[in-house]
Amino acid sequence: MVELLQEITRPELNRGLEGVVVDSSSLSDIDGDAGRLIYRGYEIEDLATGASFEEVLHLLWHGELPDRDELEAFVEPMAQERPVGDGVLELMAELARQDEDPMAALRTGVSMLSAYDPEPDAEPEDMAAMARDGRRITAKIPTVLAAFDRYRRGEEPIEPRADLGHAENFLYMLTGEEPDEIAAETFDMALTLHADHGLNASTFTTMVIVSTYADVYNAVTGGIGALAGHWHGGANQDVMYTLMDLDESGLDPIEWVEQTLEEGGRIPGWGHRVYNVKDPRAKILEERSALLAESTGETKWHDYTTAVERYLTDEIGLPEKNIAPNVDFYSGSVYYQLGIPIDLYTPIFAMSRVGGWMAHILEYVEDNRLIRPRARYVGPTSQEFVPLEER
Predict the structure, then answer these.
(1) pTM
(2) Of 238, 275, 314, 332, which shows the fewest CB atoms inside 10 Å?
Protein backbone atom coordinates (compact mmCIF):
# COMPACT_ATOMS: atom_id res chain seq x y z
CA MET A 1 0.00 0.00 0.00
CA VAL A 2 2.81 2.40 0.92
CA GLU A 3 4.62 1.68 -2.34
CA LEU A 4 1.39 2.28 -4.29
CA LEU A 5 0.85 5.65 -2.59
CA GLN A 6 4.46 6.61 -3.29
CA GLU A 7 4.02 5.77 -6.96
CA ILE A 8 0.82 7.80 -7.17
CA THR A 9 2.35 10.86 -5.54
CA ARG A 10 5.59 10.79 -7.48
CA PRO A 11 5.95 13.49 -10.16
CA GLU A 12 5.37 12.30 -13.71
CA LEU A 13 8.57 11.15 -15.41
CA ASN A 14 9.25 12.81 -18.77
CA ARG A 15 12.47 11.50 -20.30
CA GLY A 16 14.29 14.20 -22.24
CA LEU A 17 11.89 16.76 -20.74
CA GLU A 18 9.54 16.00 -23.64
CA GLY A 19 6.33 17.98 -23.29
CA VAL A 20 7.51 19.70 -20.11
CA VAL A 21 6.88 23.46 -20.07
CA VAL A 22 9.65 25.05 -18.00
CA ASP A 23 9.17 28.74 -18.75
CA SER A 24 7.19 31.29 -20.74
CA SER A 25 8.75 33.23 -23.60
CA SER A 26 7.79 36.03 -25.98
CA LEU A 27 10.55 35.24 -28.49
CA SER A 28 9.45 32.53 -30.92
CA ASP A 29 6.57 30.13 -31.38
CA ILE A 30 6.11 27.05 -33.53
CA ASP A 31 2.88 25.54 -34.81
CA GLY A 32 4.00 22.09 -35.90
CA ASP A 33 0.67 21.15 -37.46
CA ALA A 34 0.36 24.31 -39.55
CA GLY A 35 4.06 24.59 -40.37
CA ARG A 36 4.29 28.06 -38.87
CA LEU A 37 7.21 29.81 -37.16
CA ILE A 38 7.08 33.32 -35.72
CA TYR A 39 9.62 35.58 -34.03
CA ARG A 40 7.87 37.98 -31.63
CA GLY A 41 4.68 37.66 -33.67
CA TYR A 42 6.27 38.15 -37.11
CA GLU A 43 5.98 35.38 -39.68
CA ILE A 44 9.36 33.85 -40.51
CA GLU A 45 8.62 34.24 -44.23
CA ASP A 46 8.24 38.01 -43.84
CA LEU A 47 11.41 38.36 -41.77
CA ALA A 48 13.54 36.15 -44.01
CA THR A 49 12.52 37.92 -47.21
CA GLY A 50 12.04 41.46 -45.91
CA ALA A 51 14.51 42.05 -43.08
CA SER A 52 18.25 41.69 -42.66
CA PHE A 53 19.77 39.39 -40.05
CA GLU A 54 20.80 42.46 -38.07
CA GLU A 55 17.20 43.67 -38.03
CA VAL A 56 16.13 40.27 -36.75
CA LEU A 57 18.78 40.40 -34.03
CA HIS A 58 17.43 43.79 -32.96
CA LEU A 59 13.93 42.32 -32.90
CA LEU A 60 14.98 39.35 -30.76
CA TRP A 61 17.18 41.35 -28.38
CA HIS A 62 15.16 44.55 -28.06
CA GLY A 63 11.61 43.44 -28.79
CA GLU A 64 10.92 45.44 -31.95
CA LEU A 65 12.11 45.92 -35.50
CA PRO A 66 14.34 49.00 -35.75
CA ASP A 67 13.82 52.07 -37.88
CA ARG A 68 16.75 53.27 -39.99
CA ASP A 69 18.37 55.33 -37.23
CA GLU A 70 17.95 52.57 -34.68
CA LEU A 71 19.38 50.02 -37.09
CA GLU A 72 22.43 52.17 -37.77
CA ALA A 73 22.99 52.67 -34.04
CA PHE A 74 22.68 48.91 -33.55
CA VAL A 75 24.84 47.74 -36.46
CA GLU A 76 27.80 50.12 -36.16
CA PRO A 77 29.04 49.13 -32.69
CA MET A 78 28.60 45.42 -33.46
CA ALA A 79 30.59 45.78 -36.69
CA GLN A 80 33.38 47.46 -34.72
CA GLU A 81 33.52 44.41 -32.44
CA ARG A 82 34.37 41.98 -35.26
CA PRO A 83 38.20 41.88 -34.89
CA VAL A 84 39.62 39.34 -32.43
CA GLY A 85 42.85 39.31 -30.42
CA ASP A 86 46.09 37.94 -31.85
CA GLY A 87 46.05 35.19 -29.23
CA VAL A 88 42.72 33.92 -30.52
CA LEU A 89 44.06 33.87 -34.07
CA GLU A 90 47.18 32.01 -32.90
CA LEU A 91 44.93 29.49 -31.19
CA MET A 92 42.93 29.00 -34.41
CA ALA A 93 46.16 28.45 -36.31
CA GLU A 94 47.28 25.80 -33.81
CA LEU A 95 43.90 24.04 -33.85
CA ALA A 96 44.01 24.03 -37.64
CA ARG A 97 47.47 22.43 -37.54
CA GLN A 98 46.06 19.76 -35.21
CA ASP A 99 43.20 19.12 -37.66
CA GLU A 100 40.64 19.92 -34.98
CA ASP A 101 36.96 19.54 -35.71
CA PRO A 102 35.54 22.97 -36.68
CA MET A 103 32.82 22.87 -34.03
CA ALA A 104 35.35 22.05 -31.34
CA ALA A 105 37.61 24.83 -32.64
CA LEU A 106 34.74 27.31 -32.46
CA ARG A 107 33.85 26.18 -28.93
CA THR A 108 37.46 26.67 -27.81
CA GLY A 109 37.78 30.00 -29.61
CA VAL A 110 34.61 31.42 -28.06
CA SER A 111 35.80 30.34 -24.63
CA MET A 112 39.10 32.13 -25.20
CA LEU A 113 37.35 35.34 -26.26
CA SER A 114 36.63 36.02 -22.60
CA ALA A 115 40.36 36.50 -21.96
CA TYR A 116 40.32 39.46 -24.36
CA ASP A 117 37.16 41.09 -23.02
CA PRO A 118 38.11 44.71 -22.20
CA GLU A 119 35.56 44.79 -19.38
CA PRO A 120 35.90 41.42 -17.63
CA ASP A 121 34.90 42.41 -14.10
CA ALA A 122 31.17 43.01 -14.52
CA GLU A 123 28.86 41.65 -11.86
CA PRO A 124 27.20 38.39 -12.97
CA GLU A 125 23.74 39.90 -12.44
CA ASP A 126 24.52 42.90 -14.68
CA MET A 127 22.14 42.49 -17.61
CA ALA A 128 23.70 45.37 -19.55
CA ALA A 129 27.05 43.61 -19.34
CA MET A 130 25.44 40.36 -20.49
CA ALA A 131 23.95 42.13 -23.50
CA ARG A 132 27.27 43.80 -24.29
CA ASP A 133 29.20 40.52 -24.09
CA GLY A 134 26.58 38.78 -26.19
CA ARG A 135 26.95 41.45 -28.87
CA ARG A 136 30.71 40.97 -28.84
CA ILE A 137 30.49 37.21 -29.13
CA THR A 138 27.94 37.43 -31.95
CA ALA A 139 30.18 39.85 -33.84
CA LYS A 140 33.35 37.79 -33.38
CA ILE A 141 32.14 34.26 -34.10
CA PRO A 142 32.29 34.76 -37.91
CA THR A 143 35.85 36.09 -37.60
CA VAL A 144 36.96 33.13 -35.47
CA LEU A 145 35.35 30.60 -37.78
CA ALA A 146 36.62 32.12 -41.02
CA ALA A 147 40.15 32.39 -39.61
CA PHE A 148 40.15 28.74 -38.60
CA ASP A 149 39.05 27.62 -42.05
CA ARG A 150 41.62 29.74 -43.84
CA TYR A 151 44.44 28.54 -41.59
CA ARG A 152 43.62 24.91 -42.29
CA ARG A 153 43.73 25.68 -46.02
CA GLY A 154 47.19 27.18 -45.61
CA GLU A 155 46.00 30.76 -46.06
CA GLU A 156 46.15 33.81 -43.81
CA PRO A 157 42.94 35.09 -42.25
CA ILE A 158 41.24 38.11 -43.77
CA GLU A 159 40.40 41.05 -41.54
CA PRO A 160 36.70 41.77 -41.14
CA ARG A 161 35.18 44.80 -42.82
CA ALA A 162 32.82 47.07 -40.95
CA ASP A 163 31.19 48.29 -44.17
CA LEU A 164 29.73 44.86 -44.99
CA GLY A 165 26.70 43.22 -43.44
CA HIS A 166 27.06 40.34 -41.00
CA ALA A 167 26.36 37.62 -43.58
CA GLU A 168 28.23 39.31 -46.42
CA ASN A 169 31.28 39.93 -44.23
CA PHE A 170 31.55 36.27 -43.25
CA LEU A 171 31.50 35.09 -46.87
CA TYR A 172 34.10 37.74 -47.68
CA MET A 173 36.41 36.63 -44.82
CA LEU A 174 35.96 33.00 -45.87
CA THR A 175 36.74 33.41 -49.57
CA GLY A 176 38.55 36.74 -49.90
CA GLU A 177 35.94 37.96 -52.38
CA GLU A 178 32.76 39.93 -51.87
CA PRO A 179 29.80 37.65 -52.61
CA ASP A 180 27.33 38.61 -55.30
CA GLU A 181 23.92 39.91 -54.32
CA ILE A 182 22.12 36.57 -54.60
CA ALA A 183 24.71 34.76 -52.47
CA ALA A 184 24.75 37.49 -49.81
CA GLU A 185 20.96 37.65 -49.63
CA THR A 186 20.66 33.88 -49.46
CA PHE A 187 23.13 33.53 -46.63
CA ASP A 188 21.53 36.41 -44.75
CA MET A 189 18.17 34.64 -45.05
CA ALA A 190 19.69 31.39 -43.82
CA LEU A 191 21.01 33.14 -40.71
CA THR A 192 17.57 34.58 -40.02
CA LEU A 193 15.90 31.19 -40.47
CA HIS A 194 18.22 29.57 -37.92
CA ALA A 195 18.31 32.41 -35.38
CA ASP A 196 15.76 30.97 -32.96
CA HIS A 197 13.52 27.95 -32.63
CA GLY A 198 11.94 27.75 -29.21
CA LEU A 199 13.44 25.88 -26.31
CA ASN A 200 15.69 23.47 -28.17
CA ALA A 201 18.57 21.58 -26.56
CA SER A 202 21.29 24.19 -27.09
CA THR A 203 19.07 27.12 -26.12
CA PHE A 204 18.01 25.37 -22.94
CA THR A 205 21.65 24.59 -22.19
CA THR A 206 22.59 28.27 -22.32
CA MET A 207 19.68 29.11 -20.02
CA VAL A 208 20.67 26.44 -17.49
CA ILE A 209 24.21 27.80 -17.41
CA VAL A 210 23.30 31.46 -17.13
CA SER A 211 20.68 30.70 -14.45
CA THR A 212 23.62 30.03 -12.13
CA TYR A 213 24.85 33.56 -12.96
CA ALA A 214 27.78 32.18 -14.90
CA ASP A 215 28.81 34.71 -17.54
CA VAL A 216 27.69 34.76 -21.15
CA TYR A 217 30.99 33.31 -22.42
CA ASN A 218 30.32 30.18 -20.36
CA ALA A 219 26.73 30.03 -21.55
CA VAL A 220 27.51 30.37 -25.26
CA THR A 221 30.40 27.91 -25.00
CA GLY A 222 27.97 25.43 -23.46
CA GLY A 223 25.42 26.12 -26.19
CA ILE A 224 28.01 25.35 -28.85
CA GLY A 225 28.82 22.11 -27.04
CA ALA A 226 25.16 21.08 -27.08
CA LEU A 227 24.72 22.08 -30.72
CA ALA A 228 27.74 19.97 -31.69
CA GLY A 229 25.83 16.78 -30.99
CA HIS A 230 24.77 14.81 -34.04
CA TRP A 231 21.11 14.77 -32.97
CA HIS A 232 20.93 18.55 -32.85
CA GLY A 233 23.15 20.45 -35.25
CA GLY A 234 24.66 18.14 -37.84
CA ALA A 235 21.80 16.98 -40.04
CA ASN A 236 22.49 19.43 -42.88
CA GLN A 237 25.97 17.94 -43.24
CA ASP A 238 24.42 14.48 -43.51
CA VAL A 239 22.07 15.76 -46.21
CA MET A 240 24.94 17.04 -48.32
CA TYR A 241 26.96 13.86 -47.92
CA THR A 242 23.86 11.93 -48.96
CA LEU A 243 23.41 14.05 -52.07
CA MET A 244 27.08 13.50 -52.92
CA ASP A 245 26.57 9.74 -52.58
CA LEU A 246 23.64 10.04 -54.97
CA ASP A 247 25.78 12.02 -57.42
CA GLU A 248 28.62 9.48 -57.29
CA SER A 249 26.27 6.51 -57.70
CA GLY A 250 25.44 7.41 -61.28
CA LEU A 251 21.85 6.37 -60.62
CA ASP A 252 18.68 8.27 -61.32
CA PRO A 253 17.54 9.96 -58.06
CA ILE A 254 14.44 7.77 -57.90
CA GLU A 255 16.41 4.57 -58.44
CA TRP A 256 18.91 5.69 -55.81
CA VAL A 257 16.21 6.41 -53.23
CA GLU A 258 14.52 3.07 -53.87
CA GLN A 259 17.83 1.24 -53.53
CA THR A 260 18.74 3.15 -50.37
CA LEU A 261 15.42 2.38 -48.70
CA GLU A 262 15.52 -1.28 -49.76
CA GLU A 263 18.93 -1.61 -48.10
CA GLY A 264 17.56 -0.16 -44.86
CA GLY A 265 19.12 3.26 -45.31
CA ARG A 266 17.48 6.55 -44.43
CA ILE A 267 17.24 9.95 -46.07
CA PRO A 268 18.41 12.68 -43.66
CA GLY A 269 16.60 16.00 -43.48
CA TRP A 270 13.15 14.43 -43.07
CA GLY A 271 11.07 14.53 -39.92
CA HIS A 272 11.20 16.93 -37.00
CA ARG A 273 10.54 16.79 -33.26
CA VAL A 274 8.01 19.64 -33.62
CA TYR A 275 6.83 19.90 -37.24
CA ASN A 276 4.30 17.42 -38.62
CA VAL A 277 4.28 19.12 -42.02
CA LYS A 278 6.97 20.68 -44.19
CA ASP A 279 9.20 23.02 -42.20
CA PRO A 280 8.44 26.61 -43.29
CA ARG A 281 12.17 27.33 -43.32
CA ALA A 282 12.68 24.52 -45.83
CA LYS A 283 10.18 26.14 -48.19
CA ILE A 284 12.17 29.39 -48.17
CA LEU A 285 15.51 27.69 -48.71
CA GLU A 286 14.04 25.58 -51.51
CA GLU A 287 13.29 28.80 -53.39
CA ARG A 288 16.77 30.17 -52.70
CA SER A 289 18.32 26.90 -53.83
CA ALA A 290 16.57 27.26 -57.18
CA LEU A 291 17.73 30.87 -57.48
CA LEU A 292 21.33 29.95 -56.67
CA ALA A 293 21.24 27.12 -59.19
CA GLU A 294 19.98 29.48 -61.86
CA SER A 295 22.62 32.12 -61.07
CA THR A 296 25.56 29.69 -61.04
CA GLY A 297 24.39 27.36 -63.79
CA GLU A 298 24.99 24.35 -61.51
CA THR A 299 21.52 22.89 -61.11
CA LYS A 300 22.15 19.27 -60.13
CA TRP A 301 22.08 19.74 -56.36
CA HIS A 302 18.74 21.51 -56.49
CA ASP A 303 17.45 18.96 -59.00
CA TYR A 304 18.52 16.05 -56.80
CA THR A 305 16.88 17.54 -53.72
CA THR A 306 13.56 18.31 -55.37
CA ALA A 307 13.47 14.91 -57.09
CA VAL A 308 14.04 13.09 -53.80
CA GLU A 309 11.38 15.20 -52.06
CA ARG A 310 8.87 14.60 -54.83
CA TYR A 311 9.38 10.82 -54.69
CA LEU A 312 9.20 10.58 -50.89
CA THR A 313 6.09 12.74 -50.95
CA ASP A 314 4.15 11.39 -53.92
CA GLU A 315 5.25 7.74 -54.02
CA ILE A 316 6.14 6.90 -50.42
CA GLY A 317 3.69 9.32 -48.80
CA LEU A 318 5.90 10.32 -45.90
CA PRO A 319 4.05 13.61 -45.24
CA GLU A 320 0.88 11.58 -44.67
CA LYS A 321 2.79 9.95 -41.80
CA ASN A 322 3.74 13.38 -40.39
CA ILE A 323 7.26 13.05 -41.81
CA ALA A 324 8.18 15.98 -44.05
CA PRO A 325 11.30 17.90 -45.10
CA ASN A 326 12.91 19.99 -42.39
CA VAL A 327 15.20 22.99 -42.77
CA ASP A 328 18.30 20.81 -43.07
CA PHE A 329 17.03 19.12 -46.21
CA TYR A 330 17.62 22.30 -48.20
CA SER A 331 20.19 24.21 -46.14
CA GLY A 332 22.86 21.59 -46.92
CA SER A 333 22.74 22.09 -50.68
CA VAL A 334 22.28 25.87 -50.30
CA TYR A 335 25.48 26.16 -48.25
CA TYR A 336 27.30 23.94 -50.73
CA GLN A 337 26.25 26.18 -53.61
CA LEU A 338 27.60 29.14 -51.62
CA GLY A 339 31.02 27.45 -51.52
CA ILE A 340 30.96 26.75 -47.78
CA PRO A 341 32.87 23.64 -46.65
CA ILE A 342 30.53 20.91 -45.43
CA ASP A 343 32.07 20.60 -41.98
CA LEU A 344 31.38 24.31 -41.36
CA TYR A 345 27.62 23.87 -41.63
CA THR A 346 27.08 23.23 -37.92
CA PRO A 347 29.40 26.07 -36.82
CA ILE A 348 27.38 28.34 -39.13
CA PHE A 349 24.30 27.14 -37.29
CA ALA A 350 25.95 28.39 -34.08
CA MET A 351 26.88 31.67 -35.78
CA SER A 352 23.18 32.27 -36.32
CA ARG A 353 21.67 30.63 -33.24
CA VAL A 354 23.82 32.70 -30.88
CA GLY A 355 21.28 35.45 -31.60
CA GLY A 356 18.49 33.29 -30.19
CA TRP A 357 20.64 32.10 -27.30
CA MET A 358 21.29 35.67 -26.24
CA ALA A 359 17.62 36.61 -26.55
CA HIS A 360 16.57 33.74 -24.29
CA ILE A 361 19.39 34.45 -21.83
CA LEU A 362 18.37 38.08 -21.46
CA GLU A 363 14.70 37.19 -21.21
CA TYR A 364 15.30 34.52 -18.58
CA VAL A 365 17.67 36.37 -16.25
CA GLU A 366 15.30 39.31 -16.10
CA ASP A 367 13.35 37.15 -13.63
CA ASN A 368 16.04 34.58 -12.92
CA ARG A 369 15.50 31.33 -11.10
CA LEU A 370 18.18 28.67 -10.82
CA ILE A 371 17.24 25.77 -13.10
CA ARG A 372 17.47 22.74 -10.86
CA PRO A 373 15.30 19.75 -11.89
CA ARG A 374 15.12 16.47 -10.00
CA ALA A 375 15.57 12.86 -11.02
CA ARG A 376 13.41 9.96 -9.89
CA TYR A 377 15.54 7.67 -7.77
CA VAL A 378 15.16 4.00 -8.75
CA GLY A 379 18.12 2.48 -6.90
CA PRO A 380 18.18 0.37 -3.73
CA THR A 381 16.95 1.96 -0.50
CA SER A 382 18.07 -0.38 2.28
CA GLN A 383 21.69 -1.35 1.68
CA GLU A 384 23.59 -2.53 4.74
CA PHE A 385 27.02 -0.91 5.00
CA VAL A 386 29.98 -3.30 5.34
CA PRO A 387 33.39 -1.88 6.43
CA LEU A 388 36.22 -2.15 3.90
CA GLU A 389 38.11 -4.84 5.79
CA GLU A 390 35.02 -7.07 5.87
CA ARG A 391 34.08 -6.82 2.19
Answers:
(1) 0.93
(2) 314
